[in-house]
Structures are given as C-alpha cells and as structure tokens.
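Tokenised fold entry reproduced for absentees:

. . .
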Amino acid sequence: MDGLRQRFERLLEQRNLATEALGALEAKTGVDKRYLAAGATTLLSLYLLFGYGASLLCNLIGFVYPAYASIKAIESPSKEDDTVWLTYWVVYSLFGLAEFFSDLLLSWFPFYYVGKCAFLLFCMIPGPWNGARMLYRRVVRQLFLKHHEAVDSVMRDLSGRALDVAAGITRDAKVSVTQLQQDK
C-alpha cells in the first residue's frame, strides 16, 4: 500500500495541467492537494458507477487527454512520444470496433463504464506498464504480422474497384450533363 501511496505522491509532484489546477485549488481552499485529488477521483468513480451519462464521461476521459497529448507529441521534436500515442490510438480504435459490436450486451453489465474507463486509463499510463504498448506488442502486432499481406491484397483489390466505380460514375455524370445541356 505504501508503494501505491508513493506513486500517488510522485504523480502529484509532476508538473501538468491537473497538478497545476490542484495546486491553485489548494492555495484557494487550504485543503491539501492529495485530499482534493482523492476526492475528485472518488467523485469521478461514483459518477461512473451511478451517474447519468457515464458513457459520455468515460469516452471523454478516453479521448480528450490522449488527443491533447497527441497534439503535444506531434509538435515536439521527439518521435518516441509520437509512437506512444499512435500505439494508443491503434488500440483505442480496435477497442472501439470491438465495443461497437458488443456494446448493447456489455452496457447492461453493472460497472461496465468503470471497467471501460479503467481499461482506457491503463492504456494511457506512461512508462513500462503502458497498456496500449503491452496490448500492441502481445496481440495487435502478432495479428498484423500474420495477416498484413492478405489485408494489403484485399485493400488493393477494393481500392481498384472503388477507382473503377468512381470512374464509371464520373463518366455517367459527364454524359448526363452533356445530354442536359444539349436538351436545353
């Protein structure tokens, strides 16, 4: 338990938007920022458990901070942080795809949104325990390496067909426009 408390303390000592807001709130209220952070986390968890719109809140948590961090990564000279957030978005997209097909069933489970939010937070944790990196290396990368040639072949075929259809539609549209102009 002390290890968790120490990690929590180190997290609160980092400089970021959340800790600056907690510091400002601590200065105004006189309440220690550890208690403010614990209270906010508790309220957030309770809202995810019982609140209306837990789905929206969970999706905001899984999208807003990663989007902000991705923009910062794009603007930074380092490419390592780009890889971290690209990996997150790949895992997030696959999770979203799986959730699309199972959401009606899963949303009826109690505490589903708490679990989903915990999973998304696990995927964005910085450092060696980054869930997105772990899932990418153990699952996504293996599947990609096994099937990427077949997927590339299907995509080339679909792309060729789409271009043929677009060319046909364009040709038919030109013919129709020409006929309309001649009829006037």
